[in-house]
Amino acid sequence: MKRVLTYVMIILTIILFFGEMNALAEEKKTTIKDSELYARSAVLMDADSGRILYGKDADTVLPMASTTKIMTCILALENGSLENLVEVSKYASTMPDVQLNIKEGEFYYLKDLLHSLMLESHNDSAVAIAEHIGGSVEGFAEMMNNKAIEIGCQNTTFITPNGLDAEKEITAADGSIQKIVHSTTATDLAKIMSYCIKRSPQKDLFLQITRTPSYTFSNYIKNEQGEVISGGRSFSCNNHNAFLHMMDGALSGKTGFTGDAGYCYVGALERDERTFVVALLACGWPNNKNYKWSDTKKLMEYGLTNYQKIDLAAQNINEEWLSDILVENAKTENFFENFNVEVYLREQQGAPTILMKEGEEVDIFCNVEKKLIAPVENNQIVGKIQYKIDDEIYWEREICTKQGAKEKDFQWYLKGVFEEFF
Questions:
Q1: CATH number of the structural domain spanning residue 289
Q2: Is 66 known to be catalytic?
Q3: Whether residue 143 sits in one domain with residue 89
Q4: Catalytic position from the list 56, 69, 147, 254
């Protein structure tokens, strides 16, 4: 009997042990802790909505190294032609490693330099592209910063097109001299990548270039007659984005490293109509170049496991929000009659979907007029319905009038009095 009890206790202990292990495994699937990541700053973003699904020091301003080049690439695609010939300046030819070793006076097709930029991360190609598109590195940096603002970045400063550590002094509005550094945040970097793969008019070309496994091209020179001819040099580029082969659905990405920035990475994955972007800054220094792949995979798996698409338009709303609205001072058929205007919820194209985790809720708020004063226009906006998650608005819908209402005038009063009393 004693032996039987011992066996029972052993079995119960084993059951409890594996139960706890399963519980921990389940917890690990549904949560992620900052301490589990090597990166000093990290973001997992829903590329379609821009919602941050996970952030670790997400808005800390840090150098971003060659992840800069996704902005260089998308600006070149949007403002240049792939078949344009780019002339190499002396300045571009002096860029440090990593470099294509282009020479002053040579010519390259823009499409060839873009492959050099994104597959091998050549710093000299970046400068040649910048000077071609922006007229100068400074002019191109201004384009980069303007584009960053357009995308919605709030803490990004571009100085170089290649991401080499850089700083400069500027004169502030109050006349003081301030130092700015080439830098971004994980949030802003994820926004830029989301724009490149989702919203840019050149998103397909961006994906095509960044997904190319290998690419070969040649240089060109001018002969004595001024004709552009083959220069006799050939180049081969190979894609160094290892993430493309790590996970099913890997879309795009860009690595980076400098002494100040450490290892950085921004990458995108698409699976089951869900698109995730991971941005990592300061993800280790030599000899820890593989930390970025570990963090990227961990964040992507967390997103895939926990987040599903929710159609905001399918969320139920309070029908009372669409009740008729009293219009004061409105013309009516009868003298003592009130006028109520009907309203409707305006249809909008492309109702957003958003990635949400089990247990999260969409909070729906309505702000609609309780009464109106004539005149009222047909299709006049009288209210809005807001869809919020964690106090951030992701969608707004307009409540509009189905018909108009004219204001009472002297003739209306005269007519009403006559009909009522005579």
A1: 3.40.710.10
A2: yes
A3: yes
A4: 69
